[in-house]
Amino acid sequence: MSTPLLYLALLWPARHLVSDLFVKEWLYSQMMHDSGVIAVQLLALSLAVTPATVLLARIKVAPRVTRALGRWLLAHRRDFGLASFIYACLHLAHYVRELGDIGSVLAELAFLDIALGWLAFAVFAALAVTSNAASKRRLGRGWKWLHRASYVGAALTLWHWLLFDFFPDDALFWLGVVVALKLVHLALRRFRRAAPAAASGAP
Predict the structure, then answer these.
(1) How far apart are alpha carbons 71 and 53 in whole angstroms?
(2) Dist CA 107 CA 126 (whole Å)
(3) What angle do the packed helices 28-58 and 150-164 form, to 10 degrees?
C-alpha cells in the first residue's frame, strides 16, 4: 500500500470528527470518545512495530513475506504515529470548541485529568515535529532518546483516560496492551544483547 492510500485508510474515520466541528449541534462526548480511542489505537500500533519486526525476523516460514512485512511496518511506523497525533489534535479541537474560550481552557488545567492530557499532547507534539529526517540528523543520538518518550506519552494518555472515564474498561484494556508491548520490547532487547555473549562463550 502506498503512503497516500495508507493515510486515506488511517484518516477515513476522521471525516465525521472534522465535519462535526462545523455544525451547530454535535455530540461532544461521542467526538471526544471516538477521537481519543482511535488516537490510542494508532499509538499502540506504532509502538507494536519494533517488537513485531523483531519477531517477524525470527519466523522461518515464508521468510521473504515476513521480511517484506517487517520492512513495510518499519517504513510506515512514522505514519502510524503521525496519524495518531492527528486524532489527538482533533480530540483537542473538540475540547477547545466545547469550552469556548482560552480562559476556561486555562482554568481547567487545575484538574489532574486535564493536565495529564495536555502533558501527553505536548510529548506527542514534540515527537511529531521531530519525526522528520532533518531533525534526526540534527539531534543525532538525542533523537532516539527523545522518541523513546513515546512510552511516557502513552502512560500519560492512558492515565488521563483512566481518570476521566466513568467506565474505564477500554482504558484498562489499552493500558494492558501498551504494558505488554513494552515488556516484549524489553525482553527482545535483552535477548539480542545476550545472544552475542552466548555465541562467544562469555559467562
Answers:
(1) 8
(2) 24
(3) 140
The per-residue DSSP string of the chain comes to --HHHHHHHHHGGGHHHHHGGGSSS--HHHHHHHHHHHHHHHHHHHHHHHHHHHHHHH--SSHHHHHHHHHHHHHHHHHHHHHHHHHHHHHHHHHHHHH-SHHHHHHGGGSHHHHHHHHHHHHHHHHHHT-SHHHHHHHTHHHHHHHTTHHHHHHHHHHHHHHH-SSTHHHHHHHHHHHHHHHHHHHHHHHHHHHHHHHTT--
Banded pLDDT at 197 (limits 50, 70, 90): very low
The domain segmentation of the chain, as residue ranges, is 26-197
> Cell triple for residue 16?
465525521
Does pLDDT of 151 surpass 70?
yes
Report CA 98 to chain centroid distance, whole Å: 24
**86-125 residue pLDDT tens:** 999 999 999 999 998 899 999 999 999 999 999 999 999 9
**Separation between Cα atoms, residue 123 and residue 156, nearest integer Å:** 9
The yes-or-no verdict on residue 202 having pLDDT over 50 is no
Q: Is-contact 43 157, C-beta < 8 A?
A: yes
**Does residue 37 surpass a pLDDT of 80?**
yes
Tally of CB atoms within 10 A around 63: 12
